[in-house]
Amino acid sequence: MGRVVFSSGLTVNSGGCTEDVSPAPLLEEFRQARGRQRQRLLNAVLDQGRQLVALIPTALQAYDPEGDDWAAGSLIQLLMA
Fold it and tell me: From which domain of life does this come (predicted)?
């Protein structure tokens, strides 16, 4: 499938790895992405886990606390790991 470039300029290759992306834009793109895009970004989020841990509590505030968004659950799991 090659590379995918998201609206923010974030680039993800077919393996899910990002190219030169900082943690905050990655978390924002992950939150805004839809279905398949989010699945591609999940590997990048997991790869950058240590860099993201400090940003996750703030990022979670953007999610609906009453919702069932699996992306928020993934971030919580990463935070707890």
Answer: Bacteria
